[in-house]
Amino acid sequence: MGCDGGTIPKRHELVKGPKKVEKVDKNAELVAQWNYCTLSQEILRRPIVACELGRLYNKDAVIEFLLDKSNDKALGQAASHIKSIKNVTELKLSDNPAWNGDKGNTKGDKYDDLQRARFICPVVGLEMNGRHRFCFLRCCGCVFSERALKEIKAEVCHTCGVPFQEDDVVVLNGNKEDVEVLKKRMEDRRLKMKLEKKSKKPQAVESASKPDVAEDYPGPSRVKGLKYEEIHFNSKEKKLNSTQKSTGTNGSSSGKVSKSSGTTKRSIADSEESEAYKSIFTTHSSAKRSKEESSSWVTHTSYCF
User: Fold this and answer.
1) What pTM was estimated for this model as a whole?
2) What's the CA gap between 255 and 276, in Å, rounded?
3) For position 216, what pLDDT does the model report?
């Protein structure tokens, strides 16, 4: 069974022990977190966005994920909390002037400094390579180092001047404790938004069901009542007029004036109006002329000549 020819086996060659846990290189892990998209595993390129848990994404990858969720499940779990494009914030990053990218090592014969980063803190100047803690503001999207926020305490953004609160500060690529805190904030924020939407719906329904009615204007019942009274009164007047006409015609044919009608013609001469007003009518004395004063009217036609 072997071991002939003077070979002496050792213990580790004959006995199989437990497998050693493979340790992940910290430098490689930092490079993957800060230089590659969490969803598509591609190099980060502008526009770069961050979720409420502090993970970095390419905006194009997030839009593709929201449109088509039939992608790889392992990658989809990393962005399962992103329900819409409103759940991510576009970052305003400051470029590092000392970073040359891949242009300096095109042949592969130069040393790549992994500590060199594409972006820096605009306040302190620290490079965003994972060695230092960075955070961004949800209200404006500006990115700073945590040291800058601690040293320069202010309630206003250092670059754009937008006011912010403690809940608006999100740590980028934080540890497990940071992720748990951010997750609780995210859940509380979304519950608050749902409750506000539910409270707004009944108010909108009540305002639509109650139209604005002015107090000075009468209601519909009053208007209807007035219209009915006016119509009823008009119909009574018409009936009286018709009866008076019928009685007047009967009295004139018989030569007797009916006293039951009760309608008498009122002359203008007996009224209390002024003389100027009375002179307008033909019944006034000034309008009456004698036969001598009245001239005979002759119509002129072509047949008279």
Assistant:
1) 0.58
2) 37
3) 47
**DSSP string covering 265-291:** PPPSTTS---HHHHTTSTTSGGG---T
If phi over 0 gives left and psi between -120 and 50 gives alpha, with beta otherwise, what is residue 114?
alpha
* 54 phi-psi bin (left φ>0, alpha ψ -120 to 50, beta other): left
Joined together, the tokens standing for residue 140 give 């404006």
Q: Tell me if 85 sits within 8 A of 58, measured CB to CB.
A: no
User: Residue 235: in which H helix or E strand, if any?
Assistant: helix 220-254
Mean pLDDT computed over 87-97: 92
Closest by CA position to 54, among listed 148, 237, 165, 177: 177
Q: In terms of pLDDT, which residue wins out, 305 or 49? A: 49
In the sheet that 56-58 helps form, which strands lie side by side, from edge to edge? 56-58, 48-50, 89-90
Q: In what order do the strands lie in the sheet with 143-145?
A: 143-145, 134-137, 169-171
Tell me the average pLDDT across 20-45.
86
Domain spans of the chain, in order of start: 26-100+115-200
